[in-house]
Amino acid sequence: MTDPDITPEIVAAHGLTPDEYDRILEIIGRVPSFTELGIFSAMWNEHCSYKSSKKWLRTLPTEGPQVICGPGENAGIVDIGDGQAVVFKMESHNHPSYIEPYQGAATGVGGILRDVFTMGARPIAAMNALSFGELSHPKTRSLVNGVVAGIGGYGNCFGVPTVGGELRFHPAYNGNCLVNAFAAGLVDADRIFYSAASGVGMPVVYLGAKTGRDGVGGATMASAEFDDTIEEKRPTVQVGDPFTEKRLLEACLELMETGAVISIQDMGAAGLTCSAVEMGDKGGLGIQLTLDHVPQREAAMTAYEMMLSESQERMLMVLRPEKEAEARAIFQKWDLDFAIVGETIAEDRFVVLHGNEVKADLPLSKLSSTAPEYDRPWVATEPAPEMDPVPELDPVDALRALISSPNYASRAWVYEQYDSQVMADTVRAPGLGAGIVRVHGTRKALAFTADVTPRYVRANPVEGGKQAVAEAFRNLCAVGAKPLATTDNLNFGNPEKPRIMGQFVGAIQGIGAACRALDMPIVSGNVSLYNETDGQAILPTPTIGAVGLIEDLDQIIAGTARDGHVLLMVGETAGHLGQSALLAEVFNREDGDAPPVDLGAEARNGAFIRDQRDWITACTDLGDGGLALAAFEMAVAGGVGLSLDAADMPTLFGEDQGRYLIATNFDKAEALMVAAGQAGVPLVSVGRVGGDMIRIGAAEAPLDELIALWSRALPEVLG
Amino acid sequence: MKAAVLVFPGSNCDRDLAVAFRAAGFEVDMVWHKDTDLPAATDVVGIPGGFSYGDYLRCGAIAAGSPIMGAVRAHADKGGYVLGICNGFQVLCETRLLPGVLMRNAGLKFVCRAQDLAVATTDSAFTGGYRDGATITVPIAHHDGNYQIDPDGLAGLQAEDRIAFTYTGNPNGSVADIAGVLSENRRVLGMMPHPERAIDPEQGGADGRVLFDALAGALVAA
Question: Do A243 and B10 touch (CB under 8 A)?
């Protein structure tokens, strides 16, 4: 079959602008072949090149004594002491999940797991942050069901515990759901594998599943002009096979033990193209591939299709030649493909051969280094107008409305579909606050959380960006963990609109400031732009995934509130109701400014919780829904009633930052008061634990009744 | 005391099961599914949870026909102990070492939670460490744990006191709330809940530990 001629239409269908195409002509000095055009489009699309976001991503803090590997590799790596490290990253699979929720979400999980085990780490924890449209929207229920089943279907079979996440519903996601998947793995710090190739004439090996036509040009090609060039138009969504991924994991880890691997890279977006270019580019080498040797699932695949296929569960590796037989035997044992498909070369060339023809011959280093970079115009978000007054309500009625809303009801419907216990090291299962997983065979543990409050980010991108990091920080501190580092998954609308770009820029500024102040550098991440349907953008949703270290299991704040405990609150309360959960869920209003974040107070209060953990039985951070919701969640966890002294909306439902709710006995509370005085940390008594009622001011309701409301809200709408 | 833990492609609780056996004092060998013999002097075979062969065809069906299962059957036939957990229970039903079948959960969804169980018999090496009728909490995590058996078969299990555990609050639609059953000689146990995920308090409870300790005790006493 002959390749089509390169026309302006074909160039446009590859998502390349005329300027970008001119740049290609300039680089190679001739018209590209069809395969070459595909390679450029794969390397230069937003997803791979970060062309709109790079300028701003550079401003983020990525270094620190704890950081072993920052952004740029498959995942970030952070030292956890004793010669061990945690490898983690979060990545979006938004568009595929909206088109085909089960497979879109499943392959999102598969991709992030591969990013982690490519570096030599065994995955030990997963999380996911999900944003859907309102439940009354006709698509939402099937999306939620499909996405949750897909995440469970992949992660459960692969065998990684899913220990946390987020779930929200908002009309801004009606046409564009968000599926952000996080994975973390454990590795010995002296056994980390990177993607940079080294040595000339080294075999380039293809590992894993066979290549099919699924996902060809997933990111860049969606137009009808290609009907004549691709015989069978497959869905652009890839199909995942967790059984193959599990075998690939075991085979890769076994292979890495043998010392056969020089470098390794998983095949994710733009498959063979991106992985080969990445390995060559990082190693300062050229790569020659002979596609005839690529294991193929379908007949008569073209070079173009093979280079752009996004078939799942595949890896590319540069191998020590003397270890070939040993390496091949391991992959045969696991019934996986193992094929030498090329070699490293000294010249700066990316040569693709197929059927004795040169299908591409490009200057390899230019493919990523000369990728376009844009300084998109942006306008700062206008300050939020003064908000209308908030009427006072019966506080228990307000709580009832909040806990029976899909956004604040029990998440059990979701997380019970995920295996949260496999690997038998889960210390704190999902539900409330950070998930905790033991470092296998040790007394150490890692805590994981994913956070963002998109309403805040829309109202005030800078404060909203700070708040996402601060909330992650608090969730870690509240279980007694020392926050180590973060990964960011930045979901925004169309960056070509200055207003949207302004949200992005503001959020990055806020995130950067918070990561600096709280010593949580960003070690990996992903940007997902163009999350718009019919010109309607999603809420700006920069999800922050964070990891904290617990030096000894005894340091976990793991207790629950008990009869006779007093309730104490750390932090200042100003009663900030702007953009609060109360406004959104009870009054159907989203006005006012986001709560301001005092990063100094965050750092101080978080350190106070960790330092004083011996005096704290139960702890939760205050976030959405303020004191009232935090107290309710503490009552649920302890299965015990409680009473709060306050009765006004700002004190109960205000979302001031930097706060924690603590339950502890009277003697320990005394000790905490003294310690707080010395540390200059605001600490006040806010109520007592006991009985079987929730009392707020003069209002009350049986805890059982509230728990029933909270528990059934999601199952009732989702089935 | 020797335990052999089978490893199929797709097993994902094999390590966890080995850890639990070791904690109870067993020496553990991991046995690859393509092997045809168990290590000499194996006292108990552990068939772990996971998704053997991707759960393709039917959970446990392909594993039931894998090379190692001939040796497992021979081990059971001569009175050896076998413990199948979750996918391992499915494999035991598919090999007919245990009666009944495990179907899709009645709620059609995967379900993972801490589950209360009643100890339905203490008359076995696995359950002898529990108090009769005791309530224990053990995690479950499965998509196909809905145990079904014909009425005669059920009557037989009940008459012979071969129901090992029942659910308190049935999570999957199993007939008679059955969570685990014993073979006729009471030496093969299949159960959907994961006792290996409850062997120390840090996991949220240690009720599963009793099972492994009791088995070890029975082997020492024998």
Answer: yes
Nearest to A652 by CA among A572, A556, A582, A557: A582
**Cα radius of gyration (chain A):** 26
User: Residues B46-66: pLDDT tens digits?
Assistant: 999 999 999 998 999 999 999
Q: Is pTM, for the whole model, over 0.90? A: yes
What is residue A16's three-state secondary structure? coil
C-beta atoms of B112 and A438 within 8 A: no
Q: What is the pLDDT of residues A300-329, one digit of tens each?
A: 999 999 999 989 999 999 999 999 999 999
Of all helices (H) and strands (E), which one includes residue A183? strand A178-188
Predicted local confidence at residue A236, as pLDDT: 64
User: Residue A225: its pLDDT value, please?
Assistant: 33
d(CA B209, CA B136): 11
pLDDT at site A231:
37
Contacts of A427 in chain B (CB under 8 A): 202-204
β-strands A642-644, A536-537: how paired?
A: unpaired
Q: What residues contact residue A37 under an 8 Å CB cut-off, 6+ apart?
A: A6, A10, A11, A14, A16, A24
- For an interface test with B, the pick among A113, A145, A147, A243 (most B C-beta atoms closer than 10 Å) comes out as A243
Residues of B known to be catalytic: 86, 194, 196
Residue B106 to residue B125: CA distance in whole angstroms: 31
**pLDDT tens digits for range A278-308:** 999 999 999 999 999 999 999 999 999 999 9
Contact partners, residue A109, CB within 8 Å, separation at least 6:
A126, A128, A150, A151, A154, A155, A158, A181, A183, A240
ipTM comes to: 0.96
Residue ranges making up the domain that contains B67: 2-221
List alpha helices for A432-486, DSSP H. Answer: 454-459, 461-478
The domain tally of chain B equals 1
Closest CA to A451 of A195, A120, A164, A207: A164
Whether A128 and A109 have beta carbons less than 8 Å apart is answered as: yes
Contacts of B55 in chain A (CB under 8 A): 157, 243
Interface contact A553-B204, CB threshold 8 A: no
CATH of the domain at B134: 3.40.50.880
From B199, which residue of chain A is nearest by alpha-carbon distance? Answer: A424
Nearest-by-Cβ selection for B9 from A247, A417, A426: A247
Nearest chain A CA: its distance from B104 CA (Å): 14
